[in-house]
Amino acid sequence: MLQVCVLNLKRRSDRREKFQQLNRQSDIQFVWVEAIEGRELDISQLIEQGLLFRQYEHFTPGQLGNAMSHRMLWQQCVEKDTPLIICEDDAVLRQDFAAGFTHIYQQLPATWDCVFFGYNFDSILDIEIIPGVNLQGSFFPPGLSQANQQAFVATTVMPSLLPLNNVLVPVPMPFHPKEHNN
Question: What is the pTM assigned to this prediction?
Answer without folding.
Answer: 0.76
